[in-house]
Amino acid sequence: MKKNIIKHPNPHNCRVCNKGACCAEGVEVDLFEVARILKKPLSLKKPWFYFMGPDKEFPSGFKFSTTLRKRRCVFQDSRFRCRIYEIRPRFCAEFPFENGEKAPYYHILCHHMKKSRKK
Description:
Largest sheet: 3 strands, antiparallel
Structural class: alpha+beta
Number of strands: 7
Number of helices: 5
Distance between the termini: 43 Å
Number of domains: 1
């Protein structure tokens, strides 16, 4: 079976983005991802997540979001880089896609997309 390969609209933009705007609003995560991330030893004040409610779209059936600190995801450092990149949630790993399609909010979250629209 051939695996579908999803290509980023412009992967160069993500390599050079220092703003981390794509997760400035926090990130939706599944309960299983919360459990995996909570195992990582980080010297960050908790809580790291808040419960959003039941959601059939999530494998566990429960949706959470990362908390915000200083107007950004709790896991972003002072340079807007992800502290949990190697175990980042599915939505982070797939961005700018969501379930194989370009995320409907890509134009809002992507720092480079915002800049290109102003021209």
